[in-house]
Amino acid sequence: MGSLHFRAGTVAVVRDSLGRVLAFERSDRRGQWQLPQGGIDEGESPIEGVWRELEEETGLTADEVHLVDEYPEWTAYEWPEGANKSGQRLGQAQRWFFFQIHDDSTAPKPDGVEFVDWKWVEVDWLIEQVVDFRQASYQRVLGSS
Known about the structure:
By secondary structure, this protein is an alpha+beta fold. Helix content is 19%, strand content 36%. The chain has a single domain, classed as Nucleoside Triphosphate Pyrophosphohydrolase (Alpha-Beta Complex).
């Protein structure tokens, strides 16, 4: 059994021409909204991971969005009691990437596994909606963007 660690992952922030961000409703917790995110696979760079996760969870690719920026630091959060399914992870350490959608009328296709719905939202609304243990990371990155 390995030691406790933080899982390395990425977060994708997709903006429209009005500066709103693309939020997705979780399938396992209806009414809870967040950004696309996921783990970095072995041998994968953070940028490769974010592009893969973005396509898997939302159907968006370089045909619909382009990379604009990357948050310069890792962010981290600890999972609350009971959320550590593997028994080995303390939480997640994440790299955040910012994308611009080419056409505001583009409709993402939630994967139906993790996400069931989507909408364009203001940053402040999303920070208030995201599950509480992720709020500090969202505030740190989005509050400054």
